[in-house]
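User: Here's a chain of 263 residues. Predict its fold as tokens.
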Amino acid sequence: MTTAVCTLFEGDYHHGVAALVNSLHASGFIGNVFAGYRGPRPAWAASDELCFGNLRIHFVPLAQNLHFANFKPQFMRRVFSHLAPDADAVLYLDPDICLTAPWRFIETWLETGVAMCEDVNSPVYENHPRRLDWRKFYASHDVSLRYRGDVYVNSGAVGVTRARLGLLETWERLQTLMGEDIGGLDQVKLDGGTSARMRDPFFCFNVHDQDALNATLEACADTPVSILGREAMGFMPGLRVLPHALGPRKPWRRNYLFEALSG
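Assistant: Prediction complete.
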């Protein structure tokens, strides 16, 4: 199976992209990585294309005002249709994620269903107000959601084969509808947003991209999924596959020597 990997970044997140690419190379990945970016290209990238043995990274400039958290399905679809039209699968990874598993494990994972990881805020039960509000909102737009389990997935890692491309189309559609309710897809929780709703932790789309993705799983209830537990992203003890550095204190922003000396 031919798999393309993609990510989205701006600002100092290029440090995370470098670490992600290094981890892919160490895992045995062979193929293309597409890094969509806004703003200047990183200083360490002398051109829009770099080659590291059998791994090639392509920097893709993007001119759009959506927050990148709300641009994932669109970019994955672009990889399938234009950037890697021969790819059998596309794996999106946030730039604050690294891969610690061998690539052969990832390929098997992708073949079993839409590949995702459980979030730190999982589970969200069947009649949780958040799920009920999703159903009410999307029903008003003629989209039916069907409960398929308590797991709430993280949107930082999503792998889709070409045969399951329809899930990305649905995710994009549901995000577009959500955007009308949150004040636009340029809104993002980490920045507080300009919408009063985005500042409300009990609002059903407070975690915008993830809420839309989890609603998509209910809209595509017949699509096979393969979900790794919370340990996969390092949210609980266990075997880590894609450790995910949540929150604003990213590894490249920390002074580890100072922290060690400070106790």
